Known about the structure:
Layout: H1 3-9, H2 16-24, E1 28-30, E2 33-34, E3 46-51, E4 54-60, E5 77-79, H3 83-95, H4 109-120
Helix pairs in contact: 1-2
Amino acid sequence: MRLDKYLWAVRLYKTRSLAADACNSGRVKMDDRELKPAHDVKVGERYSLNIDQLHKEIEVLALPPNRVGAPLVQGFMIDRTPAEEYERIRMARQYAFEKRDRGVGRPTKRERREIEEFKYK
């Protein structure tokens, strides 16, 4: 099974094209090696992913035949992400640095790029 299809099937990405884009941009790695969307997934492999600000680590248990429901995902992968990572994300959301004052309006293209650069780099 292709890596992008696996990441989509176990509900780590909403669409397969988002999973492929993540692979192409170097956000999916195995042993510090960037992987392509066509990488052949094997049982027992461990991947590290950057999803927004979350650094997630997973281990493949089995290959799903197709996209599976959320309750069934546990049978196909183990989430090896440290609890500290989830705590860090929870704290970051609590302080929500992205809030804009009421009445300011939408960010301009320049402001949006600055926000994205700050968040993802």
